Task: inverse folding
């Protein structure tokens, strides 16, 4: 049984990950909204409400992890926020909200969790094909895609710094998955992959792939809209 932390766990892929991983693992689910998580009945699940945009997010998460005292085997950074708006219409608040959640929040989650991770533990950052160099890009998603490109680069840098500790880090750049976020970005589009199926892939990758892969940004995509 592994100890797993999932950041961004209240809907879509994050919620599906929790439902799958609590069957055989201890899971700490972190999300701003927790109603959907509290409906899951499992002794192996701990749910806490935290906002990645909050200035005290890292401090609060660190305090919680110190309170639980359990070593972390797997950290999945799934949190994401998207504003679909033409570039010239974006204001500072739109840009800041996306980078605060998609980049700074993920970096702070890593800073909080790494002191509790042992050699051969694994950090999986959930990126996007929108942030994958050379992939198709779409109008209205300039800030979101830029933030996901930052996640990809951060993962490569993190893996390098974590070598001395034996902690592995990888980024999965996801293509179209049927989630609420995809619906917001591409209304009416139906993705070829469900959140449940993608969560199964991510769960297996998180638990096993670090034995062979480290510091990689991996496209996981049947299609991009």
Result:
């Amino acid at each position: 049984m592994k100890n797993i932390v999932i950041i961004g766990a209240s809907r879509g892929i994050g919620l599906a990950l929790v439902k799958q991983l609590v069957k055989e693992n201890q899971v700490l689910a972190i999300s701003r909204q927790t109603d959907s998580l509290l409906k899951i009945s499992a002794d192996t699940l701990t749910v806490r409400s935290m906002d990645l945009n909050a200035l005290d997010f890292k401090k609060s998460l660190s305090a919680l992890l110190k309170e639980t005292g359990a070593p972390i085997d797997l950290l999945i950074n799934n949190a994401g926020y998207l504003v679909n708006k033409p570039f010239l219409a974006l204001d500072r608040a739109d840009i800041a909200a996306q980078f605060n959640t998609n980049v700074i929040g993920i970096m702070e989650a890593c800073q909080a969790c790494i002191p509790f991770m042992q050699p051969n533990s694994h950090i999986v950052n959930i990126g996007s094909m929108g942030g994958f160099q050379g992939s198709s890009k779409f109008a209205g998603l300039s800030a979101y895609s830029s933030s996901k490109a930052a996640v990809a680069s951060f993962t490569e840098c993190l893996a390098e710094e974590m070598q001395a500790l034996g902690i592995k880090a990888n980024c999965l750049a996801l293509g179209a998955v049927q989630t609420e976020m995809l619906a917001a970005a591409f209304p009416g589009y139906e993705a070829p992959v469900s959140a449940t199926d993608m969560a199964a892939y991510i769960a297996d990758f998180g638990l096993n792939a670090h034995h062979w892969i480290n510091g990689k940004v991996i496209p996981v995509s049947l299609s991009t809209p």
